[in-house]
Specification:
Helix content is 30%, strand content 29%. It contains eleven helices and 18 strands. Strands 5-17-14-16-15-18 form a six-stranded mixed beta barrel, surrounded by four helices. It has a three-stranded antiparallel beta sheet with strand order 7-8-9, with no helix packed on it. A hairpin with a 4-residue loop joins strand 11 (241-246) and strand 12 (251-259). Helix 2 packs antiparallel against helix 4.
């Protein structure tokens, strides 16, 4: 028996152990995500829509995507638009077919509403492309912020929102011949012309520390409005859009225009690393509570995120990255380098439920159709989706606590 074990069973056991090691413990090279491998064609899932019984907001979001595609037609011409293709995973789809799919989806939605008949039609007539990370997509939320401000600085209103500086440059690396030879290069670099070089040289733009605490942009007339709370300003940089109630009673709507090009770093991650907060309790609300209780630490915490956002005034909004408004619970932000802009999606995740004291008492399943109409500095890779939750207290609560996993699909008509 001992010889049998030694000569027969032991090699089998060793092979199994080696296989387990290579499958689960052997260091793997990180996947280089591209538009071609970020989505996979899959069978249609079971469909429901808990976002709203009213199809109106979804129709509105579809119309905004159609407006985006119409603008492309005006800029490039219908023929060029038809020849322009985007990736749904390995499949190449003309942009014109995305528009046709949206028109068909809208027509069926208006005929049937969000009913079983409508869901059955979509399952039978549309192809579904699932994120390559499947059920491991992290869903977060964002909202349109509310702030208090003034058009003139004072002891109360001390913190400016800046418009895009004239010396902020964009370098399109993808237009250079070396771009495709090196993995991981960003398509766009942002910077400024240096004053300290004998020849015109682009250097990184000013960081958050240089702008807010060394006042590199002060006195240049770039201030749109002055805000009364620095923490509100910081979170506006994350949300990207907000409504400012001015001291004269009027309102001013601001929206993301450009960034300084530095990488986004989540201060929540830093607070967890410092063991100030935990992964379980970190949220926008817990971060804000800590900042308000420790004002002497605000600068140290804020400058860990060198990324900085510049704004513009808008008449309607909030505006997404496509230049059209986003719609509450019907618009999402994804990685703009991986996924087709303006396209139809289906999401499955969870939303928080709150008690009378605005504390989470549970989570409820959430699913619905959305449009891919935005992006963000922290939204990178096929495993990240940011759901727009709207404006107001409830929207802020939901977005501030969302960090649930789920899955999402892109849809295109067969």
């Amino acid at each position: 028996m001992n010889k049998f074990f030694f000569y027969i069973l032991l090699p089998v056991v060793l092979i199994i152990l080696v296989a387990v090691y290579f499958l689960f413990f052997f260091p793997k090279e990180p996947v280089e995500w591209t538009a071609e491998n970020a989505l996979h064609l899959v069978p249609a899932p079971a469909i429901s829509d808990s976002a709203s019984a009213d199809a109106g907001p979804l129709v509105c979001a579809i119309d905004y995507s159609l407006k985006y595609f119409e603008r492309i037609e005006e800029q490039t011409g219908t023929e060029n638009q038809e020849s322009k293709i985007v990736s749904f995973g390995k499949e190449k789809v003309p942009v014109g077919h995305i528009k046709e799919s949206l028109l068909d989806f809208k027509a069926q939605l208006q005929q049937y509403g969000l009913t079983r008949e409508f869901f059955q039609y979509i399952k039978q007539n549309y192809r579904f492309y699932q994120s390559a990370v499947r059920e491991e997509v992290l869903f977060t939320g964002y909202f349109e912020a509310d702030l208090r401000g003034s058009l003139s600085p004072s002891e109360i209103y001390r913190y400016p929102l800046y418009r895009k500086p004239g010396d902020l440059c964009r370098v399109d690396l993808s237009s250079f011949s070396f771009y495709n030879k090196y993995k991981g290069l960003p398509r766009i670099l942002r910077g400024r012309l240096s004053d300290n070089h004998p020849h015109p040289t682009i250097v990184p733009y000013y960081t958050r520390e240089e702008i807010d605490y060394q006042k590199k942009l002060a006195g240049r007339g770039l201030e749109i409005v002055w805000i009364d709370d620095l923490i509100d300003v910081f979170f506006l940089h994350i949300q990207g859009s907000g409504i400012v109630t001015l001291d004269n009673g009027e309102t001013l709507r601001v929206n993301y225009d450009e960034s300084n090009g530095h990488p986004y770093y989540a201060i929540g991650r830093w607070l967890v690393q410092q063991e100030i907060l935990t992964l379980e309790n970190v949220s926008m609300q817990s971060i804000r509570e800590y900042l308000e209780k420790h004002p002497d630490e605000v600068e140290e915490i804020f400058i860990t995120n060198p990324s900085y956002v510049f704004f513009r005034e808008v008449d309607e909004g909030p505006m997404g990255a496509l230049g059209v408004p986003v719609t509450a619970f019907r618009s999402i932000a994804t990685d703009a380098y991986l996924f087709p802009k303006g396209a139809l999606c289906y999401v499955e995740t969870q939303l928080p439920i709150f008690d009378d004291r605005d504390k989470i008492k549970g989570w409820q399943a959430y699913s619905g159709f959305v449009l891919n109409q935005d992006t963000g500095g922290a939204i990178r890779g096929p495993g990240r989706v940011d759901l727009f939750t709207g404006y107001g207290k409830k929207s802020k609560l939901i977005a501030g606590h969302m960090k649930q996993y789920g899955t999402f699909y892109f849809l295109i008509k067969k």
